[in-house]
Automatic annotation (TrEMBL):
Gene Ontology process terms (BP): cell wall organization; peptidoglycan biosynthetic process; regulation of cell shape; response to antibiotic
Protein name, as recorded: Undecaprenyl-diphosphatase
HAMAP family referenced in this protein's UniProt entry, alphabetically: Undec_diphosphatase (MF_01006)
Natural source organism: Gracilibacillus dipsosauri
Gene: uppP
Pfam families reported for this sequence: BacA
Amino acid sequence: MDFSAELLTLIKYFILGLVQGITEPIPISSSGHLIIFRELFGVKANGLSFEIFVNFASLLAVLVIYRNDIIRLVTNGTRYIVKKEKEESDRKDFQFIIYLIIATIPVGVFGVLFGDAIGDALSNTKIVGFTLLITAVALWLIRNLRGRKNDGDLTTKDAIIVGLAQMVALTPGISRSGATIVGSMLVGMKQETALRFAFLLYIPVSLGTGILEIPEILKDPNINSLLIPYIIAFITTFIATYFALKWFMDIMAKGNLKYFSYYCVIVGILVILFL
């Protein structure tokens, strides 16, 4: 491979990392956009190792942003278990952890059984175009919702509904963050609570997927020849996810989800017509 070809490859993977990083935390489907840009760049997908690799970079960015919430939940949840005298704040955080576990079960079970089959069967641009339109409709339906539930007001039913919503997001083009936020707001969560629940829920799912798919990454035929492009994509994804999530937190506070709905409609139609 000559220098110009190598440089072009690095640029392509830099852009793919940027796309993953920007689209992971906002409700427009990172998996769908990776499929679209791979089609545009002529980057062939051999399994899901690249998606898993950059998804782990997004996970690290989420961990950094929500580190204080994670430390508080672990500390208070552990204290609730070991202490005889139970404090109300500890009980609420312990329950919040339980609800995260409950909400993880549907996508965990369904993902292990059917995740690869869904990814292989539905990873084409036409389907992504249609599923982006579905995402647009879902975001439009919740655009004016203003819930009242805080962290301590959630129920098992809420966790199950959000978990089922996340399971739907196994379909490429259905935004994971969008699906979980839609589910969270439909059950009456406040924007801040919905956002926190959605991204703390992302952590066990992403971590579990990464661990289960380590063999997939190791047997990727491109891992040696594309190691540097993968690393560039990883670093780019981490940085882009961090700033995109910070930006999206501000968007959620202002209740401007309708603009993501408009975006998904435009991109979905363009993809269906031209790709």
